[in-house]
Amino acid sequence: MLDHWRRVEPQRIASLALCALCLLAWPAANALASHSAPSSAQPVSPQTLLHPQRTSVGDLALGGDLAGVPRGTTLFLRYDDLLRLPQTTYTIDDDPNFHGHTVISGIPLAQLAHLFGQPDSSDLIVALCYDKYRSNYPSDYIRDHQPLLVLRIDGKLRDRWPQSEYGGPMGPYLISHPTFTPSFTILSHKDEMQIPFGVIEIDFRSQSRVFGAIRPPGKWPGNSPIWQGYIIARQDCFRCHNAGLEGGQMARRDWKILAAWATTDPALFAAYIHAPKSVMPSAKMPAHADYDAASLHALTLYFQAMFPSGEKIR
């Protein structure tokens, strides 16, 4: 399955329309980097590019564990300053945000972490979007797939980027890859592209803190259905559903609601994951038609394990 909300984005359309107005204020900048090599941008001290306040709607927020400042501080990078940093360029053909061969240029997330993060305390990069969607990039995903913060598309600055397939802008930022081959398979779930558009913030975080919010209690072997369900939910469900302050909030249904549903009506819960509209015709979540019975069972058992012990269901 592709990026969870990439295929069905009607909830994003209203936000996209508002964001389109912001495009008018985004600054233009420099020329395209050379193919498959860093650009000829002049050397610059990264820390001098950070601002304590947003100067434009198109600024990129940086948060989490930033180098040299207290944890939780948010600083801002201007688009034209990002273009001053060394750029990497790829020609891609497997990102469904684009049509056919596309040249993308930008900064690898690993490089952003090196320049601005705290490597001793952060092993996870989180991309936050204006519609409360999130994508998580653990260190192994970054190693295997080399995600890139895109700054130019086919040599064009973002005020000339094509629209998304839903009719709105793909900016202010988006993330893509040089190529993508799934690096793991859990039951019928394959490692998925994390290719959000509408990115407004990059946070450097800790996997133990972020994923700890949804880790099942107790110790589970890697081949147990509960642990397998956790791995699937961590990459898929966590992008749109939150557990407290962690995770996406686009779906507006948090982890406790999912856990209660899995506990009270497991068959309906599994049916909803597999084919949402068969249960709720107005559902906006995409179907997981490729999930087999074992995957649906694992997700159901995992969310049952996440239901608070002793809590009554109203």
What's the short story on this structure?
With 314 residues, this protein is an alpha+beta fold.
Describe what this molecule looks like in 3D.
It is a single chain. By secondary structure, the chain is an alpha+beta fold. The chain has two domains: 1-207, Sulfite Oxidase, Chain A, domain 2 (Alpha-Beta Complex); 214-314, Immunoglobulin-like, CATH 2.60.40.420. The chain is 26% helix and 18% strand. The chain is built from ten helices and 13 strands. The protein is globular.
Jot down its keywords.
alpha+beta, Immunoglobulin-like, 13 strands, disordered N terminus, Sulfite Oxidase, Chain A, domain 2, single chain, 2 domains, nine-stranded mixed sheet, 314 residues
Q: What's the alpha carbon Rg, rounded to whole Å?
A: 20 Å
Question: What top-tier CATH class of the largest domain fits best?
Answer: Alpha Beta
Average pLDDT, to the nearest integer?
Answer: 87
**Globular, elongated, flat, extended or rod-shaped: what is the shape?**
globular
CATH architecture descriptor name of the largest domain? Alpha-Beta Complex
How many β strands by DSSP? Answer: 13
Oligomer: single chain
Please report the number of helical segments.
10
Assign a percent range to the helix content.
Answer: 25-40%
- What's the domain count? 2
Gap from first CA to last CA? 34 Å
Largest sheet: 9 strands, mixed
Q: Identify low-pLDDT runs.
A: 1-40
The helix-and-strand class reads alpha+beta
CATH third-level topology of the largest domain: Sulfite Oxidase, Chain A, domain 2
Amount of beta strand? 15-25%
| Elements, N to C (H/E) | HEEHEEHEEHEEEEEHHEEHHHH
